């Protein structure tokens, strides 16, 4: 679907002339697409995103991919601490409490594929807001279908082999290698990893929590 253009003034040049190496997925926590669009285009909000996808699948582009949108805020992924300058942000209209609509996911996949191809971004460059800002953000939330993106080659596939040692040191090591480098205590880090890979999991750290991080293709994101 061809995006509808609705320009937001909330953007600027990418710092240092960097090119996008990440795509950050969000949910809006608001359910009215027009209200979301107007907020992301309101100078008073000081927030924006490159794209917004409504539940019916309509895509609105608000910021050129060449420009720096204001969607990520404070956080870090791999060696990147200015995520806004290094990323393209996609807002999915969803409250966070319900599954994402089929039409919305059907629109997201080709949009993502086009972005990854155009900017030569590998699947491991597709992350959630909660991945780069553990404890501060939880979107795209527990209802987002990460497995669908993995199976389509649009997100890094998870490992399935639990490590022998499930302890905080192993958690830290595997998480950092996968890209989780934002400052967070052990419980906050575990919660962020579970939110993406095991959203129904509770209780103390287990080997199953670490299994998704063990895939050999994982490496520290640049």
Topology:
Elements: E1 4-5, E2 11-12, E3 22-27, H1 33-40, E4 51-53, E5 59-61, E6 68-69, E7 87-92, H2 102-119, E8 126-128, H3 129-132, H4 146-151, H5 168-178, H6 186-197, H7 207-210
Parallel strand pairs: 1-5, 3-7, 3-8, 4-7
Antiparallel strand pairs: 2-6, 4-5
Helix pairs in contact: 5-6
Would you give an account of this structure?
The protein is of the alpha/beta class and 222 residues long. The protein folds into 2 domains: 4-151, Lysozyme-like (3-Layer(aba) Sandwich); 168-214, no CATH class. 28% of the residues lie in helices and 12% in strands. It contains 7 helices and 8 strands, in the order βββαββββαβααααα. It has helices spanning 33-40, 102-119, 129-132, 146-151, 168-178, 186-197, 207-210; strands at 4-5, 11-12, 22-27, 51-53, 59-61, 68-69, 87-92, 126-128. The strands form 2 sheets. A 6-stranded mixed beta sheet has the order 1-5-4-7-3-8, sandwiched between helices. A two-stranded antiparallel sheet has the order 2-6. β4 and β5 form a beta hairpin. It starts with a strand and ends in a 12-residue tail after the last helix.
